[in-house]
Specification:
110 residues; mainly beta; 1 helix
Length: 110
């Protein structure tokens, strides 16, 4: 299943990073706390257990098929600007933190 042998990635020294695609990896987490310019994030078909994107300017998220993902934090003050969001096929996902749950429930993005 894993076509990408990455087990870890350090992007903490890249604060201007705007796009990150890390698909089909064996990574369980990635530290994005210093990546406030990140707007485009794809981490599909992985082994992530939790993701914190609260310090990003995220407007595109594709995290489909991460069966071990239990929590996702996209509460970053920018949720109204999301153009795409997909967290399907994540059966263990029990918590998605957002800025405004009522807005997200009535304005789904896909």
């Amino acid at each position: 299943m894993f076509q990408n042998p990455l087990t870890s990635l350090d992007v903490t020294q890249n604060p201007a990073l705007a796009s990150l695609l890390i698909s089909y990896t064996q990574m369980s987490t990635v530290d994005l706390s210093n990546n406030s310019a990140l707007t485009f994030f794809v981490c599909d078909n992985g082994q992530f257990t939790s993701l914190d994107l609260s310090n990003t300017d995220l407007d595109y998220y594709n995290g489909v098929n991460n069966p071990l993902l239990t929590s996702l934090n996209i509460k970053n003050g920018n949720n109204n600007n999301l153009t795409f969001f997909n967290a399907t096929a994540c059966p263990a996902l029990t918590c998605i933190q957002v800025d405004n749950p009522a807005f997200m429930n009535t304005n789904p993005v896909a």
